[in-house]
Structure formats: C-alpha cells, structure tokens
C-alpha cells in the first residue's frame, strides 16, 4: 500500500498532463462498456492520448477522485497555473543553498533485524541509482515512511558518506562507528575559541526556532551591551573581544539547544 501517497498518483498524473497539454489515454480499457449510453452526453473514453489546448485563454481544469476501500471518498479540483520563469529560478536558488549541506536519513523497522535488513536494502538501492540526490532521499524517508519502534539515523553530505554508514548498520557489518546503546544525552556548551566569523548566520535564515531563540537572547542582552547579537556574528573584530564572544557563544548554544528540542531531541543535562 502506498501509505501517505495513496491517491496522489492520480493527482501527479493530472498535474503532468496539464503541464504538457496532453490528455493521457484511459488505462486498462480496450473498448467502452456496453452498459453505459455513451451517445447521450459529452463524456467519452480516451483510447489514445490527445492534445489538451487551452480555450480562449482559460486555464485547464480537471477533477481527480480517490475511493477508499472503507468508503472514504475524496475529490480534488486542479487548475493549471503558469509558473513565471523568475519563480522557477527562485526555487532553484533555494535548492542550491541547501545542496551539499548535511542531510539526515531516518530509518525505522519493527525489530533490530528488520532495521539492519532495511539499511542493507537501502544501501543496495542507492548504490545502483547514482542519479539520486541525498537531499531527495532524506526527504522521502522522512515524509513517506511510517515511524516504527526500532530506529536509526545516518548523517552525511555525499552518497559515499551514506553508503558507508548504511553498510555499518547492515547485518554483515562488523561493529564500527555505530552507537547502539540507549542512554541519556548531554549537551556540552563549548568555551571561547570555538567561534568563527559568520557562525550561525545560515541557520538564522533556515530555522525559525533557532532565529526565535536568538531574538530572545538578543532582547535579554540589549539592556547590558551596546552591540547587536545578530549584528556581530559576521564581525571579525567584534568576535575577537572577550566581552562580546562569550555572550555570543552562549546565545548560539542556547538557540541550538532549542532547535534540537523542537526536533524531539531533549537532553538529560546541559553543561559548559
């Protein structure tokens, strides 16, 4: 069963039909049913693909129905929208901003054995499909798969990173860099010297949770300092001052902790 994707196949098919201006052939039909009077209306089966032109400037419209075995019925009305070239460029720019960054692949299964087997299957699949982007695989694993009891996560930037880690999880792998035991997690705040010019700037734009907690820290600090927390993140001279870098590091760490908590990673303790 397609789980979360059940019924969306027809929607995807119709969106592509609108995009290309083609009415697809009706599947699994060789000839019209004799139990329907096809001559009394304007409805007919498509025995072959047909051009779908726009009429008098009006957009293409279509209805897509999905009927569940339990009696659930859904009907979606789709309207063709022309996407301006500028918008397509904006989407490409956003994808380019995250491409190459760290990506999380989440796996789950009902048992440890099934989890290891799934890791092996995924490794074999990815190894045989070099055109797959790590970002797309991570998105699909997170949004289209059920979250079962036994779970594993691998983090990487390249296909090689993920293949190595998936093979470490597989049944035949020798123990490697895999954390298998459960326990309390501790967050350690680093001291001075861990900073760099521009740290946290990308995350401010990518994570509303991180940005919100940084804003709270900035308001709390504003009564005691004459500089802006977010303003000094890219200022090399300012970050060289002890009275600046110490509260900046503290604010970044507090905001990172808030981000982890928003993702369900709650520490047992925080030190540093």
TrEMBL record:
PROSITE patterns: KS3_2. It holds the Pfam family KAsynt_C_assoc. The keyword Transferase applies. SUPFAM superfamilies: FabD/lysophospholipase-like, Thiolase-like. InterPro entries: Ac_transferase_dom_sf, Acyl_transferase_dom, Acyl_Trfase/lysoPLipase, Ketoacyl_synth_C, PKS_assoc, PKS_Beta-ketoAc_synthase_dom, PKS_NRPS_Biosynth_Enz, Thiolase-like. GO terms for biological process: fatty acid biosynthetic process. This is Polyketide synthase. It comes from Streptomyces ascomycinicus.
């Amino acid at each position: 069963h397609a789980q979360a994707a059940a019924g969306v196949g027809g929607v995807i098919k119709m969106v592509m039909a609108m995009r290309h201006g083609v009415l697809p052939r009706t599947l699994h039909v060789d000839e019209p049913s004799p139990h329907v009077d096809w001559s009394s209306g304007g409805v007919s089966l498509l025995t072959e693909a047909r051009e779908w032109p726009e009429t008098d400037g009006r957009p293409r419209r279509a209805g897509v129905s999905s009927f569940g075995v339990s009696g659930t019925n859904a009907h979606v009305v789709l309207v063709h929208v022309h996407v301006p070239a500028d918008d397509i460029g904006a989407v490409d720019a956003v994808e380019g901003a995250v491409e190459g960054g760290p990506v999380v692949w989440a796996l789950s299964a009902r048992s440890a054995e099934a989890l290891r087997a799934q890791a092996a299957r995924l490794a074999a699949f990815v190894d045989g499909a070099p055109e797959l982007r790590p970002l797309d695989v991570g998105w699909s694993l997170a949004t289209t798969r059920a979250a079962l009891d036994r779970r594993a996560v691998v983090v990487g930037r390249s296909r090689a990173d993920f293949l190595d880690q998936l093979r470490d999880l597989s049944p035949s792998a020798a123990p490697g860099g895999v954390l298998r035991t459960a326990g309390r997690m501790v967050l350690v705040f680093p001291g001075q010297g861990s900073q760099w010019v521009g740290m946290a700037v990308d995350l401010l734009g990518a994570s509303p949770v991180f940005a919100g907690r940084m804003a709270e820290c900035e308001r709390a600090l504003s009564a005691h300092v004459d500089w802006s927390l977010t303003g000094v993140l890219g200022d090399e001279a300012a970050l060289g001052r002890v009275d600046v870098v110490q509260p900046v590091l503290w604010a970044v760490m507090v905001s990172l902790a808030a981000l982890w908590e928003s993702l369900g990673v709650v520490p047992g303790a925080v030190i540093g």
